[in-house]
């Protein structure tokens, strides 16, 4: 039995060449699950606050809203991907780390029946390594690249030491991305099977 799946492309804004990932997400998942998928496939470490901006509404964790005059934050766990897409959201923004302000375009490339032989969520493909955490946003990342990739740069040793070794901007940890999504799919397997068997019993 297949389920409806959205193929999503996630791209970091303001950087060229593009840093991007493509994933398959069941329409039944919430934005909270999508947040987890983006973190694992991009290579982030769940270390900072985040939010989705969909049609002018912010979805995240309402407990982070400190003052009444701040914009309303709706629960990311309370909105399913199918609902967002049904409302016309074929492109929206995911922001991670309000300091570095990493803004990702989330693009709905297609919605289709999933492969019955595949478990979802699923990693599809991608390109280039995401910036290090706490590097200082787009400008900080460009300065970091300039130094870490040039052995003759005066800050080269400091940047290599800060990062913990050489930095390859092209290669990324595809195995981690694939394993993370497979782990998400395994966690869904039990509840999904229970839901489907319950639905069949109800139909009888």
Explain the overall architecture.
With 204 residues, this protein is of the alpha+beta class. The chain has one domain: Structural Genomics Hypothetical 15.5 Kd Protein In mrcA-pckA Intergenic Region, Chain A (Roll), CATH 3.10.290. It contains 5 helices and 8 strands, in the order ββαβββαβββααα. The protein has an 8-stranded mixed beta sheet. β3 (50-54) and β4 form a beta hairpin. The longest helix has 30 residues, at 174-203. The chain is globular and about 55 Å long. Mean pLDDT is 92; it is low at 193-204.
- Largest sheet: spatial strand order: 5-4-3-6-7-1-2-8
Helix content: 25-40%
Report the end-to-end length measured between terminal Cα atoms.
Answer: 18 Å
Total helices: the number is: 5
Shape: globular
CATH fold-level topology: Structural Genomics Hypothetical 15.5 Kd Protein In mrcA-pckA Intergenic Region, Chain A
One letter per element, helices H and strands E, the order comes to EEHEEEHEEEHHH
How many domains is the backbone divided into? 1
Question: In terms of per-residue confidence, which ranges show pLDDT below 50 for 5 or more consecutive residues?
Answer: 193-204
Instruction: Tell me the name of the CATH homologous superfamily.
Output: MM3350-like
Rounded radius of gyration (Å):
19 Å
Strand content: 25-35%
